[in-house]
């Protein structure tokens, strides 16, 4: 991230440190008026300011407020007026904490989770996502973010053109990926097929009883409110180049490309060269904003305007997530 610069801004006697590309305003910081101010008590006076900055900047960090329990965070997220969403058609392991509240992705602490917009590998996604840092890790564990509009603008025109028709995601559930029973929240094949039919997902039950799904999804999207174009996919996470080299090598010795646990192809089904996603990852790195969590922080993002990630960490860390305001392009069969 050679173009990033460290910035330090004074807000209400608290220093907010971050690394960000020049010109970035992410995240807009709102701090408590006084020590111990309950977030729920402050909500009425803050709502308009929060919504305004989420709509323009893409994300708001609320710091220094008292959030006594996860239930308070749940009430805060729900207070914006949309029912909290369940985590359907999951791509990573999570656990439900309470209604509409989930753990952040349960990958091992030493692993990095790349930037992504939540559920951009589908044709339905939440417009809003909240993160609450219950316990900040003593080392690492940040949630980096990036402006999806800036990513789109910085992305080479040739790559945008190649992905304009969409991306074809192929998933093989089972030993090497999340089991389909966990992904779909049922062990009833008929329920899985009904979900796939509604969501425009092709499915195939393989001879061993496992499931393969194929879905054509967007590579980029237009924000329904701002009208801005955003880079909006998880191709770099699903592509085989995201695997550790030794894992990829061993799987490719055993499996054909369409049988890999997950993979992504051009819209016509042709393979995507690793070099393309090398360029994509370089762009994501250039647009990354990173700041240390403080226990009690709440981060609210427009999920189309801002992507998020997770850095490796040591020690205890607890971050919980809520999502709301479902949106999608299921009606667009021309993808």
From TrEMBL:
InterPro entries, per the entry: AlphaKG_dependent_hydroxylases (IPR050411), TauD-like_sf (IPR042098), TauD/TfdA-like (IPR003819)
Top-level taxon in the UniProt lineage: Bacteria
Sorted UniProt keywords: Antibiotic biosynthesis, Dioxygenase, Oxidoreductase
Transmembrane segments annotated in the record for this chain: none
Residues covered by the TauD/TfdA-like domain: 46-322
GO molecular function, one term: 2-oxoglutarate-dependent dioxygenase activity
Pfam family, one: TauD
Cofactor or coenzyme needed: Fe(2+)
GO biological process: antibiotic biosynthetic process
PANTHER family in the cross-refs: GAMMA-BUTYROBETAINE HYDROXYLASE-RELATED, TAUD_TFDA-LIKE DOMAIN-CONTAINING PROTEIN
Name of the molecule in the record: Alpha-ketoglutarate-dependent taurine dioxygenase
């Amino acid at each position: 991230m050679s173009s990033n610069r460290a910035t330090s801004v004074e807000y209400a006697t608290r220093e907010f440190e971050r690394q960000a590309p020049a010109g970035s305003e992410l995240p807009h910081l709102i701090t408590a008026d006084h020590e111990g101010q309950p977030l729920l008590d402050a909500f009425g006076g803050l709502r308009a300011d929060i919504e305004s900055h989420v709509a323009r900047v893409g994300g708001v960090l609320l710091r220094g407020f008292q959030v006594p329990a996860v239930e308070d965070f749940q009430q805060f997220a729900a207070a914006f007026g949309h029912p909290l969403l369940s985590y359907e058609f999951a791509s990573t392991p999570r656990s439900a904490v309470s209604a509409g509240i989930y753990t952040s992705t349960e990958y091992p602490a030493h692993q990095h989770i790349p930037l992504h917009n939540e559920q951009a590998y589908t044709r339905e996604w939440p417009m809003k996502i909240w993160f609450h840092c219950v316990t900040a890790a003593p080392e690492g564990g940040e949630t980096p973010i990036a402006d999806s509009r800036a990513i789109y603008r910085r992305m080479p025109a040739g790559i945008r053109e190649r992905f304009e028709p969409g991306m074809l995601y192929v998933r093989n559930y089972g030993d090497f990926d999340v089991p389909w029973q966990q992904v779909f929240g049922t062990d009833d094949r008929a329920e899985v097929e009904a979900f796939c039919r509604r969501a425009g997902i092709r499915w195939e039950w393989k001879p061993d009883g496992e499931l393969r799904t194929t879905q054509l999804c967007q590579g980029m999207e237009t924000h329904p409110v701002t009208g801005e174009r955003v880079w909006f996919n998880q191709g770099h996470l699903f592509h085989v180049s995201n695997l550790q080299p030794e894992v990829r090598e061993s799987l490719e010795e055993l499996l054909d490309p369409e049988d890999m646990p997950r993979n992504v192809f051009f819209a016509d089904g042709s393979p995507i060269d690793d070099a393309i996603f090398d360029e994509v990852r370089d762009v994501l790195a250039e647009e990354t904003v990173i700041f240390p969590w403080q226990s009690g922080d709440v981060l609210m993002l427009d999920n189309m305007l801002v992507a998020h990630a997770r850095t490796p960490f040591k020690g205890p860390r607890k971050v919980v997530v809520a999502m709301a305001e479902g949106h999608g392009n299921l009606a667009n069969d021309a993808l």
